Every structure is written in C-alpha cells, then in structure tokens.
UniProtKB/TrEMBL annotation:
Residues 27-92 form the SMc04008-like domain. Residues 85-95 have a biased composition (Polar residues). Transmembrane segments: none annotated. Gene3D superfamilies: SMc04008-like. InterPro entries: SMc04008-like_domain, SMc04008-like_sf. This is SMc04008-like domain-containing protein. Residues 79-102 are annotated as: Disordered.
Length: 102
C-alpha cells in the first residue's frame, strides 16, 4: 500500500465514522464518552488540531460543523438531551472533565 492509498483509506474511514455518528443522533455525546472515551466534540477538536498542524485556517465552530453536519448550537438544541445523574456520575468517574465537553 502506498502512503497516498493509506491516506485515502484513512480519510474514507473518517468520513464513514462521521456519517455513522450523524445517522445516530440518538446517541448522546456523554454516552460516547462513557463507553468509548471520545465524542463528537473530541472529533471536532482533533479535526481542528489537524488543521492547525497543517496551517489550514479552521476555527472550532467550523470544525464542529464539519463533524455535526450543522452548527453546533443547532445540533445541541435539536438533539442533545440532559444527561441523567447516572451518566454524569459515570462521566465524572472515568474522564477528566476539563479535557472534554459533552
């Protein structure tokens, strides 16, 4: 496999992951954090970090829109539910709250 083929495969896998998450708006970010240790916001921050590394001008709002498929505030208003006490407790026990936003 060439380097370019690997890059193209990784990009396709990333697009499929984002598409899958967009098809599962019922899955809350806190659930993703509690089960997998990352969420849509993490992906947006990684996206922005990659852009920064490559000197491509992308702000966090643009990165979030690339991941959420719409402005972040719109997604939150349409799809985000309040976390249950159990979800919040699990999050506090397994994550560093200052590193992630759910």
């Amino acid at each position: 496999m060439t380097k370019q083929e690997r890059i193209e495969l990784e990009a396709a896998a990333f697009r499929n992951l984002v598409s899958h998450l967009n098809s599962r708006k019922d899955v809350q970010n806190i659930e993703l954090m509690n089960l997998a240790g990352f969420c849509r916001n993490c992906l947006a921050k990684w996206y922005k970090g990659a852009a920064d590394d490559m000197d491509i001008p992308v702000n966090l709002d643009e990165a979030r829109e690339a991941i959420y498929g719409m402005p972040y505030t719109d997604w939150k208003n349409k799809y985000q539910k309040e976390a249950t006490p159990a979800q919040q407790a699990n999050f506090q026990n397994t994550q560093k709250p200052d590193k992630h936003e759910s």
